[in-house]
Amino acid sequence: xxxxxxxxxxxxxxxxxxxxxxxxxxxxxxxxxxxxxxxxxxxxxxxxxxxxxxxxxxxxxxxxxxxxxxxxxxxxxxxxxxxxxxxxxxxxxxxxxxxxxxxxxxxxxxxxxxxxxxxxxxxxxxxxxxxxxxxxxxxxxxxxxxxxxxxxxxxxxxxxxxxxxxxxxxxxxxxxxxxxxxxxxxxxxxxxxxxxxxxxxxxxxxxxxxxxxxxxxxxxxxxxxxxxxxxxxxxxxxxxxxxxxxxxxxxxxxxxxxxxxxxxxxxxxxxxxxxxxxxxxxxxxxxxxxxxxxxxxxxxxxxxxxxxxxxxxxxxxxxxxxxxxxxxxxxxxxxxxxxxxxxxxxxxxxxxxxxxxxxxxxxxxxxxxxxxxxxxxxxxxxxxxxxxxxxxxxxxxxxxxxxxxxxxxxxxxxxxxxxxxxxxxxxxxxxxx
Length: 433
Ligand code: NSS
Hints:
By secondary structure, the chain is of the alpha+beta class. The chain has two domains: 7-99, CATH 2.40.50.140; 121-421, Bira Bifunctional Protein, Domain 2 (BirA Bifunctional Protein, domain 2, 2-Layer Sandwich). The protein contains 14 helices and 18 strands. The chain has helices spanning 7-11, 57-65, 114-119, 121-124, 128-150, 189-199, 235-256, 258-263, 268-273, 283-292, 305-312, 367-376, 385-390, 405-412, and strands at 18-31, 34-40, 45-51, 71-80, 88-99, 154-155, 161-162, 173-177, 180-184, 202-209, 222-231, 280-282, 319-322, 335-336, 339-343, 345-350, 355-362, 398-404. Strand 8 (173-177) and strand 9 (180-184) form a beta hairpin. The two termini are 35 Å apart. The structure holds 5'-O-[N-(L-asparaginyl)sulfamoyl]adenosine. 5'-O-[N-(L-asparaginyl)sulfamoyl]adenosine binds at residues 166-167, 186-187, 189, 210, 212, 219-220, 223, 225, 227, 356-360, 400-402, 404, 406-407.
């Protein structure tokens, strides 16, 4: 079998002079009897040139009529050429068509409405922007794992099909599970709290599900959740973990994918400037800041997207909002012993108007305190029996957090809509393709 060379290898100047590549015909034009074919293989895009005298007439004619997105194999000579995009070019010695496209590619270089592009998502993901997003997603997950593993965390998986809510019943997706009712998980957290007594510090990367019933630019019904849980850890410590992890991700992206970031107008230097400690404000301070802008928040209510946006526009780096009222947070958040009407909770907010990236904080570890909170929230202890049980056998202070992957990408890539941070988004109105 022929050994094909990755286009990225050629573009990095590390390939041999004679190259054998395969890929999709990304774009083509001809000028002065030469066809310029841009070939894409997933690792990169390279310009190839086909001269009339290089192949027989039939082949030349076929390539001349070949529609974009057809697949080809090319053997040719690699040349350094400043004029070529990427600085290298392949002069074709032989070309073979593997699949000739028979119809026009639906996505052309013209304006298409968002619904059309969503309907053709399976083809649209071949474009430059989604390619960059996919690389950024992969890099974030790679370096996230790198950070956690090098800091002594173990990767732990919890079930997706569950029986009790973590983040409140209103966004639970119900599922028929044979003859009983089950749900899709909103977070791995409750199981993670059980697992820390087995393996200590843990993290996960997994899908989470929220039956978000409102149309927003920031909510998916299925999103990817980076979560961590840690025993003997208080609010202060988990916030430190959060800011260090986020900084690590931002710096790695800036260093390793600068071109991809620039596609979205993000200067990698902006990300390198971000360093811990991030600013910290309390919920009370946040509401005071909003009041000065003429926005009144009823004490006890969660901050809306519009309010987060106003605050977030005031910051140039991510910032924490801490100590949310009990009424604004899920049952598991530990009330502050110094001020029990608020919790030892934190949200990490992105700057530049993007809002919440992370929800986290310290958990209730005391059995009686947990039972009291479940009762206050009118939650059925039967549903949480195993979770309660964990508090009976060596309970310790512990904390954790969840970072929304698409929210992070939305901010980093300055996206208007979260759906563009994921290849096949699931939203209130869309589950196809
Ligand atoms: O509801 S959270 O604020 N917190 C939790 O689920 C905790 N149980 C996590 C934990 O401590 N292990 O969600 C966490 C993050 C939130 O800050 C967003 O970044 C993201 O999850 N998130 C979402 N992203 C996209 N779409 C939707 N609908 C969504 N909901 C939350």
